[in-house]
Amino acid sequence: MTDRIIECVPNFSEGRDAAIIGEIVQAITSVEGVRLLNVDSGEAANRTVITFAGEPERVAEAAYRSIIKASEVIDMSRHSGEHPRIGATDVCPLVPVCGVTMEECVEYARALARRVGESGIPVYCYENAAFFPERRNLAACRSGEYEGIRKKIADKSWKPDFGPSEYNEKVRRSGISVIGARKYLVAINFNLDTDSAVIASEIAKDVREKGRKIVENGCERWQRGTLKGCKAIGWYIKEYGIAQVSMNVTDIDLTPVHAAYEEVCRCACNRGVRVTGSELIGLVPGRVLLEAGNFYAARDAGVAAGMSDDELMELAVKSLGLADLKPFDYKKRVIERLL
Question: Model-level pTM?
């Protein structure tokens, strides 16, 4: 690949129909020079996360084609799933990998958003590409979810950055897409030995930076959670028969993934349940597993010196329980090994 690389990680609101997912994948791979890195589908979430990379212009073209294809093959009025969502292409982030600055990535994201909007799909720009501070947060852009879009786009304060601001047949099918530029994000679910979504939700509120809303003397306030740069919700996953704490670690410098795992374990124990392992969604930077491997080697064996990168990554997979639900091959999940 070239020395100018960006990654794209669109999330599509379809995780059950292999034929539909295949059509979206084909739209991406139809762009020469784009490398498909990973396709991760979840039945209960009814969502597919696709990761691909390449030269910025080629990646932006592949992203556009996939968004248009998704709007053609996914009817959001029929969609249901555990994961929050607002559109057929729910979110589409561009991530600078090498040779491209975040500022350049923002320009590519906004140009993509404009083009998608011109196709008739409403778009909000988020994270570093946001035009308004209140739209940086994906959760804010997604609030109300698909069911609330008629009201949302009619609200002047939530007029789409690009695309129609009136509800029509195309918008009914496609919903709204959220497009932006951000740093690496790690999406990981922590498996609990309970089927209680209520307990999982309480643990999520314990740890997520946003925390929980509490009422004291008739006044509401937010009590912060213990993990900075982390977002989390709790849910029950029917296909596994367990509850999970589903987390996005948005800043791995503030909170390493192994630190998030250990804190969820602690909070779960305080609520009388146990974390049995983890489920990584999509890909992960190699440093995440190396840092975890070094942490567990030093903690459990008292030494990490002399261990190879592969040994450290294998230790991380074991210690984080990444193969708890299904086989996990780190060689196919570490971004740098696939570029």
Answer: 0.91
